[in-house]
Design goal:
Elements (H helix, E strand, L loop, with lengths): L1 H15 L3 H24 L3 H20 L6 H23 L2 H27 L4
Helix pairs in contact: 2-3, 2-5, 3-4, 4-5
């Protein structure tokens, strides 16, 4: 029990001390993790667990979309991707479809990896 409490405190401090770009990365990681859990739940025919974790992925994508700064032209591109992901996530939830979830993970991983590259480039330029 003490170990779980220490882990929770560590995670809490990690979030509280993270930069905005690190928080975005954590959200991508979380969405990928929840999608993986949903896939396992679908395979195990645990429909409530699959639903819960698919909804968590949807909420993260909803957050990404809601926080886009539309004054930048690239935001429109991201908005289109997020709308597509929202549609696919909803379809995956209705059908409890493992293949759709795997497609969603592939998109999320690609976006996460791109985000990591942006973070790295900004760090090299002294931007955080």
């Amino acid at each position: 029990m003490a170990m779980m409490n220490a882990y929770a405190q560590y995670n809490n401090s990690k979030v509280l001390t993270a930069s905005p770009s690190e928080l975005v990365l954590m959200l991508y990681e979380g969405a990928i993790k929840f999608c993986n859990i949903a896939i396992l739940a679908v395979e195990q025919k645990d429909i409530p667990k699959a639903h819960t974790h698919i909804i968590k992925v949807l909420k993260i994508v909803d957050h990404f979309r809601a926080t886009l700064d539309m004054k930048y032209p690239v935001a429109e591109d991201f908005d289109r991707v997020y709308v597509y992901l929202q549609e696919r996530i909803l379809e995956a939830n209705i059908k409890k479809d493992k293949e759709i979830l795997e497609e969603i993970i592939a998109h999320l991983r690609s976006m996460r990896d791109t985000w990591k590259e942006v973070m790295k480039a900004n760090k090299e330029r002294g931007i955080s």
